[in-house]
Every structure is written in structure tokens, then in C-alpha cells.
Task: inverse folding
């Protein structure tokens, strides 16, 4: 080669530097500091344990054992993929806030198969933004005040009017009637007494069974039946759409000016397929979750007579004021006055945990609190485990609405920090219907607490996380009418 010692030296040091460089790169690549945990069996990993049903007011044996052994951030193998599970409040917030930047939604493929590829739950990027914008406009504050509130009260009273003194029934199905009728009215102007509404409701029952079942597309399975129901529901919506377009072309203005279907037909550029998936998903998201929320409130309250009493006083006071002013219908101001009710709503959602965990994946290599989260891994923020951890909420098993009063004057708030409360998710995908769901709960509570006392018929009729939350026996209650309030309700109907 060269006999210039300087050149040789340069060459050698260059080689050395290169070697060291590759050595460190290599080292950095292989040396992931993954969270602790075990991967379980090949392919199925620990999925079966993770999905095993348990009491909805607990975080479940699987979570408890794993947190005890590995801490609040651990690795596992779930839904056929390597996964990081987080029960850590800070990390969950970090994941949700960085949606689209470091993480992305990643629901199992079966969810897209059944809710549709244009469902908001599986969309990302611009398409998600546009669909979300439509949903937010549909459920905006203004519309809640001007459209939803009146209808909600109407539909609540319609359901309650069948509750006779001393009768026993399933609250879960009554609440579902209420939320379904409300959404069907707001989305497509369907009336509850129409036969077609009943038909659609039936299809949604079998659809729901498929959403939560194993995604086996074989004859006879719940999933196969649900795909069939999906087609019937889509046909139904498409028929409604065609009717509307025909009427629009003929220049007739219907009464339905203000529902979602008319709005998307007039103001959006969505294709037929996109509109169908949007409407199917909103009708689904809008009744399955909030009906469980209402059932949970009715389940928790009898266990805490003091809360029941304070709640009733709050609503009686509102009713008194309305009577004095001669106003019958509930107004937005009345809703704002329901301070303790808001505490009961938050506490119900915290303890009941309707949505227990979310599906995300890392779209970059992420480093967090000393751990590496490799790009492509599944990331599951478990909201329920944060809500039920004593380091986030004092005595987490305890239904204690007063813990939420620290936001106002001088409540007994323990260590409640509402930034650890994430029942509706967070970040750019925060539940679009959160305000709607809370309003529904408050209106329903207003009328039931003024008109009825109730008791749980069966002590073992408890909410179970499958992991979607449900009362296996439908939450049977027996009601007693409160005579004095009855007259008031009648005057509204
Ligand atoms: C108490 C009842 C409810 C709970 C606990 C709840 C919970 C949630 C959660 C946790 C998410 C986030 C999903 C994720 O980040 O992957 C979500 C999203 C969503 N929810 Fe709700 N929800 C409720 C009621 C409703 C209602 C009444 C509607 C009305 C249609 C609704 C519509 C939606 C929509 C459209 C999204 C998708 C938002 C997006 O991706 O941008 N939800 N919900
Ligand atoms: C969202 O909807 C509003 C009202 O229709 C519209 O003015 C706004 O431009 C939309 N934003 C996006 C990002 O599409
Ligand atoms: C409430 O329901 C009654 C029928 O029970 C109906 O006549 C009335 O128009 C409804 N009001 C609203 C605001 O929807
Ligand atoms: C209410 O129902 C229960 C059981 O169904 C019955 O034992 C009781 O006598 C009934 N009370 C009244 C006042 O009808
Ligand atoms: C709809 O599409 C047309 C052209 O394709 C575009 O000019 C218009 O801005 C779009 N409108 C919306 C609301 O996206
Ligand atoms: C209920 O939780 C929300 C956070 O989702 C919080 O903003 C609100 O202040 C809470 N309500 C009360 C009464 O503490
Ligand atoms: C609540 O938690 C957030 C971060 O998680 C923190 O910034 C805030 O100071 C806490 N608030 C209280 C009152 O402790």
C-alpha cells in the first residue's frame, strides 16, 4: 500500500472508527430495554387470560397479578402480536396525546370487518379528521341544547311511562330502549313506535353479539350472523338515504331537516359507502355504551343511600324552581345546576369502566421512562386499571361521588386528580359523544330519581367485564312510584 506512515495511520484509525461505529449501532439495535413481562404461548400468548371475564368493578385477576409481578408497564403477547400493556396514568396520557405522532389506532381486523372500513374507530389521518368533524358538529354543544335535550326528556318519559308500581324488569333493556330510540331519532328521524325501528333494533342486537364474539367467519357463528345483520342494517340505511335524495331532488322539504342523515347528504363529500359506515357506527357507539352507563348508575346508587338522598334533594330543588317559574321542560340551565349529579356521573364511569382498554400500536421506536417500545408493537393503555388503583383514587372499590367535589368548594376529595380520569379516552380521539352521554345520564337520572324508588332484585346480578361490560341477567330491579312526584311527571307527558 502506501509507505507514508501518516496515511497508513489515518487509514487504520478510519477502519477502527468504522468498526466501533457499527459495533455501537449493532449494540443499540439489539439492546432494547423492554419492560418486564412474559410472552406466554406462541401466537395466542396471554390473550386468553387477558380476556377472561371478571367483575367490572375490579381490574381483574390477570391485571392484578401482572401489576404485582411486573409493575404498571409490562410486555406480553396479546391478540397475536407482541404488546406493551400500560396501567400507568402518565404513560396512558402520553400514548393518547401522541396519537398520530408516535402511536396510531390498531383495532383487531375483525372490528374493521364488522364496523366497516370507514368506521372512525379504524380510520387514521385526514379521513379520520373529516369524519370526526362531522360527528363533533352533529353532537356539538349547540345541538345538544337545541335538539338533543328535548328529545332526551321525551324519550326518557316514554320509557318510564311503562314502569308501574311494584313491577320488576331489566334496567339494561329499558336503558337500551331509551338510548337506541334517541339515536335513531337524531340520526335518521325514526320514531320508536314504527315497526321499522323495531326491526332495526333487532338487527343491532345480533350485530352487537358479533362485535364482541370471536371473529370466526364460519356458518353458525355469532360473527357470521353479525355480518349478515350488518348487511341488513346497511340496506336499511341505504333505503332511507335514497328516499331522502329523491325528496331533495323533487325539492320537497321534509320535517327531517335536522337529522344527521340530511346533514351529511347536504354538506359533506362522503361517498355512499362512507355515509353508510358512519351512520352504522354512530348508531352503534351512541347506544351500546351510554345504556350501560345508565344501568351502572342505577346499580351503584342503592348501595349508597346517602348519595341517593343527596341526589334526590338536588333534583327536587330543580323541580321546585321550575314549578315556581312555570317551566315544564328541562333546560340547559337546569342541567348546569346538577352539580352533585355530575359527581355521580363521573364516579359511575370511574368505577364501572365501560371501555376498559384501547388498542394502539407504536409507529416509531419510542423511549419512555427508561423503557423501549419498539416500532410496530401493540400498545394497550388500560384505563380501568388506572381508575381502580389506590395510588390514583383513594379506596378505589368504594362508590364515593363526593371524591369529585374537590373541584368545587371543600369536598372530601382524597387524592382525586381528574387528570387521571379517562373514561372517554383522550387526545385527538377523545370520545366524540362524551358530552352527549353525560347529558343522557343526567336527564334519565332526573326523572327516575324524582319518580321512583328502586331495589336490586338479585344480589348476584352484577356487572361483568367480558371485557365489554354487561349485566348477565340484565339488572333486574323492582320499582316503587313516588306518588307526589308522579303528578309532576304526568304533567310533562
Ligand atoms: C358513557 C358512554 C361512553 C363511553 C364510556 C365512551 C368511550 C369512548 C372511548 C374510550 C373512546 C376512545 C376510543 C379510542 O381512543 O380508541 C370513544 C370514542 C368514540 N365515541 Fe364514545 N363513549 C361513550 C358514549 C358515546 C356516545 C353516546 C357516542 C355517540 C355517538 C360516542 C361516539 C364515539 C365516537 C364517534 C368515537 C370515535 C372518536 C374518534 O375516533 O375520533 N360515544 N368513546
Ligand atoms: C369542520 O366543520 C366545520 C363546520 O361545518 C367547518 O367549518 C370546518 O372547516 C371543518 N373543519 C375541517 C378541518 O374539516
Ligand atoms: C314528544 O312526544 C310526543 C308524543 O309522545 C310528541 O307529540 C312530541 O312532539 C314530542 N316532542 C318532541 C320535542 O319531540
Ligand atoms: C309487590 O311485589 C311483591 C313480590 O312480587 C309482593 O310480595 C308484594 O306483596 C307486592 N306489594 C304490593 C304493594 O303490591
Ligand atoms: C367537495 O369536493 C369538491 C370538489 O371535489 C371541493 O371543491 C369541495 O371543497 C369539497 N367540499 C368539502 C366540504 O370537502
Ligand atoms: C368529571 O370529569 C371530568 C373529566 O373528564 C372533569 O372535567 C370534571 O370536572 C369532573 N366533574 C366533577 C364534578 O368533578
Ligand atoms: C394532577 O396530575 C397532573 C399530571 O398528572 C399534575 O400536573 C397536576 O398538578 C395534578 N393536580 C393535582 C391537584 O394534584
Result:
Amino acid at each position: 500500500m502506501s509507505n507514508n506512515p501518516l496515511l497508513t495511520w489515518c487509514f487504520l484509525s478510519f477502519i477502527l472508527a468504522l468498526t466501533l461505529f457499527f459495533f455501537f449501532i449493532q449494540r443499540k439495535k439489539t439492546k432494547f430495554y423492554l419492560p418486564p413481562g412474559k410472552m406466554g404461548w406462541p401466537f395466542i400468548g396471554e390473550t386468553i387470560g387477558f380476556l377472561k371475564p371478571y367483575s367490572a368493578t375490579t381490574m381483574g385477576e390477570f391485571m392484578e397479578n401482572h401489576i404485582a409481578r411486573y409493575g404498571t408497564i409490562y410486555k406480553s403477547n396479546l391478540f397475536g402480536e407482541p404488546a406493551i400493556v400500560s396501567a400507568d396514568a402518565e404513560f396512558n396520557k402520553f400514548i393518547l396525546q401522541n396519537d398520530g405522532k408516535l402511536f396510531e389506532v390498531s383495532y383487531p381486523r375483525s372490528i374493521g370487518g364488522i364496523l366497516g372500513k370507514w368506521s372512525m374507530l379504524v380510520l387514521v389521518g385526514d379521513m379520520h379528521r373529516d369524519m370526526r368533524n362531522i360527528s363533533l358538529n352533529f353532537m356539538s354543544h349547540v345541538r345538544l341544547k337545541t335538539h338533543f335535550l328535548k328529545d332526551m326528556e321525551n324519550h326518557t318519559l316514554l320509557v318510564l311511562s311503562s314502569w308501574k308500581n311494584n313491577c320488576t324488569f331489566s334496567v339494561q333493556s329499558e336503558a337500551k330502549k331509551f338510548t337506541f330510540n334517541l339515536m335513531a331519532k337524531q340520526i335518521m328521524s325514526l320514531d320508536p313506535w314504527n315497526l321499522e325501528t323495531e326491526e332495526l333494533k333487532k338487527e343491532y342486537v345480533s350485530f352487537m353479539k358479533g362485535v364482541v364474539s370471536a371473529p370466526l367467519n364460519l356458518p353458525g357463528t355469532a360473527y357470521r350472523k353479525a355480518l349478515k345483520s350488518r348487511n341488513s342494517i346497511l340496506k336499511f340505511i341505504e333505503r332511507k338515504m335514497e328516499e331522502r335524495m329523491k325528496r331533495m331532488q323533487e325539492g320537497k322539504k321534509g320535517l327531517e331537516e335536522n337529522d344527521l342523515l340530511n346533514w351529511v347528504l347536504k354538506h359533506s363529500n362522503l361517498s355512499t359507502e362512507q355515509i353508510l359506515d358512519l351512520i352504522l357506527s354512530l348508531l352503534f357507539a351512541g347506544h351500546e355504551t351510554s345504556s350501560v352507563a345508565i344501568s351502572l348508575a342505577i346499580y351503584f346508587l342503592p348501595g349508597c343511600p346517602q348519595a341517593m338522598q343527596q341526589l334526590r334533594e338536588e333534583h327536587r330543588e330543580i323541580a321546585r324552581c321550575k314549578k315556581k317559574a312555570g317551566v315544564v321542560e328541562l333546560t340547559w340551565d337546569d342541567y348546569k345546576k346538577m352539580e352533585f349529579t355530575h359527581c355521580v356521573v363521573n364516579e359511575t364511569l370511574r368505577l364501572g369502566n365501560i371501555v376498559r382498554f384501547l388498542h394502539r400500536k407504536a409507529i416509531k421506536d419510542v423511549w419512555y421512562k427508561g423503557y423501549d417500545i419498539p416500532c410496530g408493537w401493540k400498545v394497550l393503555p388500560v384505563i380501568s386499571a388506572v381508575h381502580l388503583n389506590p395510588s390514583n383514587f383513594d379506596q378505589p372499590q368504594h362508590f364515593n361521588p363526593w371524591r369529585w367535589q374537590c373541584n368545587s368548594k371543600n369536598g372530601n376529595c382524597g387524592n382525586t386528580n381528574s387528570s387521571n380520569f379517562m373514561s372517554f379516552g383522550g387526545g385527538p380521539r377523545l370520545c366524540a359523544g362524551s358530552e352527549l352521554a353525560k347529558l343522557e345520564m343526567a336527564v334519565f337520572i332526573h326523572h327516575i330519581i324524582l319518580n321512583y324508588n328502586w331495589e336490586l332484585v338479585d344480589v348476584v346480578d352484577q356487572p361483568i367485564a367480558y371485557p365489554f361490560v354487561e349485566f348477565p341477567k340484565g339488572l333486574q330491579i323492582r320499582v316503587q312510584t313516588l306518588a307526589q312526584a308522579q303528578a309532576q311527571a304526568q304533567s310533562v307527558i
The chain has two domains: 1-30, 32-492. The mean pLDDT is 90.
